[in-house]
Amino acid sequence: MVRNAPEVLGHLQTALHDWAPLWRKARAEPDAVSILQGEGRDFTITSEFLDEPLVVNSAASALCGVIADMAQCWIEDRPGEVALHAGGLIVNGLAIAFAGEARAGKSTLMARLTAEPWGRVLCDDVLPLTPSGEAMGLGIPPRLRLPLPPGSSQIFRDHVARHAGPRDRRYAYLAALQVAAHGTCAPLAAYVILTRRPGASASLHAVDPADRMTEILTRNMADPGSDGRLLDRVGQLANKVRMLRLVYSDLEEAVGLIRRVFGAATFPEDEVLPALPSESLTETRPAQEVAPDVVWTRSDGVGLRRQGGSVFLWQASDNAVFQMNTVAAAIWNLLEEPESAKGIAATLAVAFPDTAAETILADSRLLLGELAAADLIRPVP
User: What's the pTM value of the predicted model, to 2 decimals?
Assistant: First the structure.
């Protein structure tokens, strides 16, 4: 339901490709999964998937919240099916899924691919799979982070300038013609894991068979259920779909490699290099521990979102997620009021009396550092 937000309604009609919505006047007391309320320049999102209402300050961010709820409703209405946190592309009648860790460049790559006439982009974020193993597009265009990365080609810059749809300072939906219509399906033939590495030439690598099932399960956004059907489906996918790793640095190189390999009449097996050792795929970063006495508070526009049996922190303005374990969720709850790592550790020490106080403090400082690096919390001035 959308109230007092005509700009967001307009964005919905221009951004979603080939949806056929039924518009109707809301009842006085609505029974709605998601409600968007315009309040001056701000928008409040109230959703079954959020623990509490979320306030955002742009129509583009509000649109992102509505679309996220619509996509999740689509997934939850189809229990037992698979929905990947991945981008999707159709080439030569076959679908390719593109997944990766945060900042791997998935959305930027899918946005760039909408400039290519040889493929159709299914999505950049949510890729449902039908029971028969087809990838489906929901008619949602890629959402591109602004400004474009340094070194972006003039082709990409011109394409974005021509096709940028609903946008704000930080993000723009790319309403290009190569975005597949809602309901478009194609057999899923390949699953590509993106690994962005500075200075690396674009290359494709095999993936260890032992890692394939875990990779798909990790990216599944749907409720796994309790009857074991999901494990059977994921196992079938892992055995059936060609899984590769794309290592790259330059976006244009990556697009060229995708076109050359997946646009070929027959798959060029000689393009696939051996699997990389697992230790080379681990990003080594110094621990981002925060100072124990700095007081932290939640960033604006961040909410606790439940999805597929998991709990995430979700930031509408970035459409960014941070998966939470039990301790992380407890620390987030303690940040309802501004608090320091030392204060949080003192509270947790009562709940975990068998764990050394030094360990709890170190873990609290590290987790707060991870939240701060993701812009989910900020220091109190």
Answer: 0.78
